[in-house]
């Protein structure tokens, strides 16, 4: 009997572990995608070319979570999303390349938000495009942004959701998508999104594009950006109204470059430094313990600006700063909890 119970427990354990981590593994990726990952990790100046031959209709799902049920979302009808409670804040999460709405980091971020706020937390699922080659997904940015802007303008005009209080949080390609969508909102319904948080916005193919093709500081009332993998998957250099450079914005501690990508290597392991931007954000929603200090020459030379030393919270608790104080440096630990555990009132030099 005892043996049967133990076997049963082991089976249950194995299954729950598997179903908790809905992250794609290298073995599930096509050779083309694995080659693109390797290419991006080794070449700063990428020779990737947009592959816009086969443009597709995009299928987007807006998945609404509320505090009363963390696990059973409502798939909104974009033409009639009346389950959104217009009296509560709207937080819109956009996943990154190769992810979907069930990816572990995205679900953790959603849960952290529901723990903190009684809000409408909406995850945009654009996985049908996100799971394709980077060079193909890139081509669909405009097309998806137009659809997203329609949704946002619709909830503004039909449900009375104040867009200037909406917070869009985008990771990787999802951060670029957030920026371009907000630009279409401006032209379509003359409204400005309140805040966009860009979690290591994608760099390859976006680097040095004009601002109208990527996330930039003009896209929302406040644009805060966390850089964790510059020169690789992440955009290099400041692009928000506040830019945060944990560990100088690249090669995060505890991350090693995965040289030989094994079949069971998960996406967060393959793109460890890139994914840290999402991990830091999740932790910040629960704690406000990441404290950045003004940095004059970030990310080239990451040292606190001792002449004008100002501390501020990175992540969810970030607030707009003056134009002259908009680059911040901080250090993190190499295992969770990643923050050094400081608070704004007891801040110390990194
Ligand atoms: C996410 O998980 C739910 C529940 O298991 C499932 O119904 C849904 O199809 C999944 N979504 C994606 C994009 O995989």
Chain-wise SSE layout:
Elements: H1 2-20, H2 31-42, E1 61-66, E2 69-75, E3 90-94, H3 104-116, E4 120-125, H4 127-130, H5 134-139, H6 141-159, E5 167-171, H7 173-189, E6 193-199, E7 220-226, E8 242-246, H8 267-270, H9 272-287, E9 291-297, E10 301-304, E11 311-313, E12 327-330
Parallel strand pairs: 3-4, 3-5, 5-6, 6-7, 7-8, 8-12
Antiparallel strand pairs: 1-2, 1-4, 9-10, 9-11, 9-12
The structure holds 2-acetamido-2-deoxy-beta-D-glucopyranose.
Structure commentary:
Strands 1, 2, 3, 4, 5, 6, 7, 8, 9, 10, 11 and 12 form a 12-stranded mixed beta sheet that branches. The protein has one domain: Alpha/Beta hydrolase fold, catalytic domain (Rossmann fold), CATH 3.40.50.1820. Helix 3 (104-116) runs parallel beside helix 9 (272-287). It has 350 residues and is an alpha/beta fold. It has helices spanning 2-20, 31-42, 104-116, 127-130, 134-139, 141-159, 173-189, 267-270, 272-287; strands at 61-66, 69-75, 90-94, 120-125, 167-171, 193-199, 220-226, 242-246, 291-297, 301-304, 311-313, 327-330. The site of 2-acetamido-2-deoxy-beta-D-glucopyranose has 5 residues, from loops. 2-acetamido-2-deoxy-beta-D-glucopyranose binds next to loops.
Tags for this model:
single chain; 350 residues; alpha/beta; Rossmann fold; 12-stranded mixed sheet; 9 helices; 12 strands; 19% strand; globular; disordered N terminus; binds 2-acetamido-2-deoxy-beta-D-glucopyranose; serine hydrolase activity; lipase activity; Lipase domain-containing protein; signal
The name of the CATH superfamily reads Alpha/Beta hydrolase fold, catalytic domain
Strand content: 15-25%
Q: Specify the helix fraction band.
A: 25-40%
Low-confidence residue ranges: 3-20
Bound molecules: 2-acetamido-2-deoxy-beta-D-glucopyranose
- Give the integer mean of the pLDDT values: 92
- In angstroms, what is the radius of gyration? 20 Å
**Name of the top-level CATH class:** Alpha Beta
CATH architecture: 3-Layer(aba) Sandwich
Q: Tell me the number of strands.
A: 12
Could you give the distance between the termini?
56 Å
In this structure, how is the largest beta sheet organized? 12 strands, mixed
How many helical elements?
A: 9
User: How would you classify the helix and strand content by structural class?
Assistant: alpha/beta
Family: Belongs to the AB hydrolase superfamily. Lipase family.
Keywords: Secreted, Signal
Main location: secreted
Pfam families: Lipase
């Amino acid at each position: 009997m005892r043996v049967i119970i133990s076997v049963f427990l082991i089976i249950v354990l194995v299954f729950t572990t598997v179903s908790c981590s809905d992250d794609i593994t290298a073995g599930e990726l096509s050779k083309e995608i694995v080659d693109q990952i390797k290419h991006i990790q080794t070449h700063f100046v990428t020779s990737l070319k947009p592959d816009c031959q086969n443009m597709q209709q995009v299928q987007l799902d807006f998945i609404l979570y509320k505090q009363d049920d963390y696990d059973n979302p409502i798939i909104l009808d974009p033409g009639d999303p009346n389950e959104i409670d217009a009296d509560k804040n709207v937080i819109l999460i956009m996943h990154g390349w190769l992810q979907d709405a069930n990816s572990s980091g995205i679900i953790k971020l959603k849960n952290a938000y529901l723990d903190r706020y009684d809000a409408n937390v909406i995850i945009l699922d654009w996985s049908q495009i996100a799971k394709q080659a980077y060079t193909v997904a890139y081509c669909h940015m405009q097309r998806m942004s137009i659809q997203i802007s329609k949704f946002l303008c619709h909830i503004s005009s039909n449900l009375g959701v104040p867009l200037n209080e909406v917070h869009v949080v985008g990771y990787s390609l999802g951060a670029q998508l957030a920026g371009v969508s907000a630009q279409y909102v401006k032209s379509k319904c003359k409204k400005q999104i309140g805040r966009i948080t860009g979690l290591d916005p994608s760099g390859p193919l976006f680097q040095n594009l004009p601002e109208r093709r990527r996330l930039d500081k003009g896209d929302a009332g406040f644009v805060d950006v966390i850089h964790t993998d510059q020169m690789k998957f992440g955009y290099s250099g400041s692009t928000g109204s506040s830019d945060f450079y944990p560990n100088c914005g690249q090669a995060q501690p505890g991350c090693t470059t995965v040289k030989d990508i094994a079949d069971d290597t998960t996406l967060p392991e393959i793109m460890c430094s890139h994914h840290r931007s999402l991990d830091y954000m999740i932790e910040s929603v629960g704690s406000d313990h990441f404290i950045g200090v003004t940095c004059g020459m970030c990310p080239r030379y990451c040292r606190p600006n001792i002449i004008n030393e100002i501390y501020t919270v990175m992540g969810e608790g970030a607030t707009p700063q003056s134009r002259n104080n908009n680059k911040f440096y901080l250090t993190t630990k190499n295992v969770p909890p990643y923050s050094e555990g400081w608070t704004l009132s007891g801040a110390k030099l990194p």
